[in-house]
Amino acid sequence: MTDLKPKTVSGTVDGPDVKHMKWWGWGVDGVAFHHEDKPAFAPFVKKVVGVDLRTAAVTAAPSFDDLEIPASRTTADVTSALSLIVGEGNVVTGDMERVVHTYGKSIRDLIRIRQGVFPRVPDVVLYPATESEVAKVVAAAIAHDLVLIPFGGGSNIAGSLEPQPEEQRIVVSLDMGRLDRVLDIDEDAGLARIQAGAQGPDIEEQLNAKGWTLGHFPDSFTHSTLGGWVATRSSGMQSDKFGDIADITRGLRMVRPEGVVVLRAVPSTSTGPSIREMILGSEGRLGVITEVTAQVHRIPEKREIQAYFFPTWAAGLRAMQAISESDATPSITRVSNEVETEMSLATSKASKGISALLNQGVQRFMKLKGWDLSKICLSFIGYEGSDEHVDRNEKLVSKIVKKHGGFGVGKGPGVLYDQKKFDTPYLRDFFLDHGGAADVSETAAPWSKLLTLSTEVTAAAKRAFEKIGVQGVIMGHLSHSYHTGACLYFTFAFEHGEDALGQYDVVKRAIQDAFIAEGGTLSHHHGVGVEHSPWLEADVSAPGAALMQGLLDSADPERHFNPGKITGR
Amino acid sequence: MTDLKPKTVSGTVDGPDVKHMKWWGWGVDGVAFHHEDKPAFAPFVKKVVGVDLRTAAVTAAPSFDDLEIPASRTTADVTSALSLIVGEGNVVTGDMERVVHTYGKSIRDLIRIRQGVFPRVPDVVLYPATESEVAKVVAAAIAHDLVLIPFGGGSNIAGSLEPQPEEQRIVVSLDMGRLDRVLDIDEDAGLARIQAGAQGPDIEEQLNAKGWTLGHFPDSFTHSTLGGWVATRSSGMQSDKFGDIADITRGLRMVRPEGVVVLRAVPSTSTGPSIREMILGSEGRLGVITEVTAQVHRIPEKREIQAYFFPTWAAGLRAMQAISESDATPSITRVSNEVETEMSLATSKASKGISALLNQGVQRFMKLKGWDLSKICLSFIGYEGSDEHVDRNEKLVSKIVKKHGGFGVGKGPGVLYDQKKFDTPYLRDFFLDHGGAADVSETAAPWSKLLTLSTEVTAAAKRAFEKIGVQGVIMGHLSHSYHTGACLYFTFAFEHGEDALGQYDVVKRAIQDAFIAEGGTLSHHHGVGVEHSPWLEADVSAPGAALMQGLLDSADPERHFNPGKITGR
Lengths: 569, 569
Description:
The structure is a homodimer of 569-residue chains. The first copy, chain A, has 569 residues and is of the alpha+beta class. In chain A, a hairpin with a 4-residue loop joins strand 7 (182-186) and strand 8. In chain A, 36% of the residues lie in helices and 20% in strands. A seven-stranded antiparallel β-sheet of chain A has the order 17-14-16-15-19-20-18, with helices on both faces. In chain A, strands 7-8-12-10-11 form a five-stranded antiparallel β-sheet. Chain A has a four-stranded mixed β-sheet with strand order 3-4-6-5. The longest helix of chain A has 21 residues, at 447-467. Residues 6-12 of chain A have low confidence and may be disordered. At the A-B interface, strand 11, helix 10, strand 13, helix 15 and strand 18 of A face strand 11, helix 10, strand 13, helix 15 and strand 18 of B.
């Protein structure tokens, strides 16, 4: 992470040797975003949200000692029953551990942590080591009337991890971090059995060692788990090639009160309604996912990301659609709108990287072509495969880019994008430090609706900023292409006032409403949780939501498994 | 259908102008398979199952007048309530119509029809014309305690259409044939809104007229519907390119008692558990599918099917796997084992087509290469796209074929295969006419398990033939390739005795048991129905089946919607 610098360590956790993010923010303790070597960043922030980074009051990282953490409600009986299952050292009731397991890392979570808002905290954090321990924990949950919330890397931003505030029963956060191994690779079939608690880097390291890759790289990659990806129907940056997690997941094991659901890895099946697809996106509501048999790929011979510029957002979107309709099969299709392009240029170091692209020569070329420099859009297209495959695809894409008025600027910026791709979430904490609130909302919609959706979402966010009386910014990019449409991924930010959450709610609601009104889904890859639950019926219709509720109620009539998520009940 | 000849018409149906297959067998009334111009066919049949087509007693098509059809149990009240909804002419209670709607076209169905076995026949056949009529029918089903069985083209071979024998309530077969239109094409997104009752040729005709194709071509294509494909998770011959129906289906409308489930067409979503995937494969148990928004493709510039020979089945399978791992993206990957290859050669006319391939020159070439001619395997690989794409893919595949010891024999046989690809199901009736029973069973499994699975399935079938004391044959081909595995499609046949169904049960059970034992799923694209229901728990585990049962029970507690299918309850 070339672009991050150390930041004071502010807390440590007990329990077994399982990696966690910092309790109050994103990522590794001691690492943070900084902008001193990015001269265009502060002026950009000043321009779009009015925050002057040179003069803004900076909030220090919160002090854990200042927090009031509700006491654990566990009983000696329950703690001892759980200790018998997973061993004493793997039952943790300390405040730090419980706070770490209370929330994910949405802006709502980060603000609540900074404000010390903890209406309900898990009472116990458990670290099972095996599926059979998980099975015993599930049995104990039934026997002792506990609530179980499976916990992976804690990167969720849809509120899928928090206990319901009104929950009176003992809440157990079931941290899957000790189930972190690649158990087996069937090299003849391209299938790997992987434990659900394995985090992105763990998985790639174990697979790479044998020449394989999962190919799943969400923004959260460094701090999220396979089980979490499955439970929230995740997508990664290279999903255009490797598929969404729903495609990657072939076999599954999930512990239920009546036993382990075992879905063998088959390439396809006509057995429906699909149990695999009931478990995908189930956010812990049907049971505890312990193992996934995932399709894996040989590490490609060559891997390249090329950068391109388009004169307008509309031209960029059209080009991505044309690529998806063509014979080209890139691994990444991404194009930013004009605001995000400006942000990308502003986030680069002066002397190198993306901003260096916009040297006088390139700018002159754009002007010669009659481009308005305030409208230009930056695109990254990735290629993976044999040398010949990469070359051929680059040629195919190059033609399409040209046809849509764009041009390529080489692979230098792509290398940088690739290095920094997991750093973005750190920006949010930096921004909060300086009095700003920022988060993301993403959707997927048909090609025919994307431009209007993008326009309307932007307009809705701006109306919301106006309503709450702030200067705000919203920017977006296309991040995944499909035959019939694409994912649009929006980032929004504003200088928040006292009621940061109230303000956020207004903006978030405006954006989500616009998604639905313009034919988008409530989220392409972040899940429903409690954050998106209000749009569930609009997304899938009331009778659709009722079908889903029926499944959840039948599977968990006593509400032991992460109640309240997805359907709000 | 160059290869079929007229056969006596044996019955007609009443009701509105909706196409049906012949009441006693597959396909168009008046068309049947014949072998007079295929000199190698009779000897092949004699060799593998011992039936001498020249001397075998030929059963005439059954006479409808000889059947004893249970009387309709509908009441004046119910009939009149239904007539008020769909109009009098669209409520049919005649015997022929009810028989046509009793079964699908599995060998079990065909035998029962020939034997006049009708333990339970629908009491009413309804032809709604609109979704709103369907909604009223569903409401009437609740109000009058009826059973509704949605009916598409009637091509099902998993027993998904038959009423439960013990059913005491009035059973309504809801024929969707009047909902047969392509409603709208979103040309900018590649999405078509299509009514559920539209049959394959109707769909392609309407789409082709505007330059589009759905690309879904199951064996049943000429007599099956989009709603049926969705309800059974169908796959088509070109699914390697166009995707299985689960991929093709983007949006859905399904009528439920509480209203219409409306799933808008989005390219992907993280909203889970997926309601779309609950409806896919639901076989009418969750409600009535009325409309599908499907992804469609521009008709490709070029379309070609090339034929290849491999020295052995193992080499053919390996080559298909290598193709799936390569940069090539063919539309069809198909290779037959040695028995099916012999059958293909035997089913060709002497002077042209596939058998002409095996002229002296080719045979000499094979012998020169040291091939055992009794082991050779025929393969078809399809290519679709731009001229350049097709050429490039043919070259990529050609290299792989060569590497695995095979060689190409041109596109002549592919043209023939393409023309005759929907004729195969007629063979079953022909075979029944001559005292033979034949049917198909297919599965999907990881690449690493395919060869063993194939060997074990073949051995299991042979043991079953032995057990029932018949000479039988089983043959197979790989029909669909995925990254991690493929579909193996088996056809089996034997000269049946008096207890044809009992004999069939022994063989079928042996094959399905072997699928499961060797890591395959119970069916890759034929659905579960009642035929495969006994293997459901083995396929998805008992806790998995319980999850599914929970969904079905919660969605249909009073069992109005096609009860008994999939889970057997």
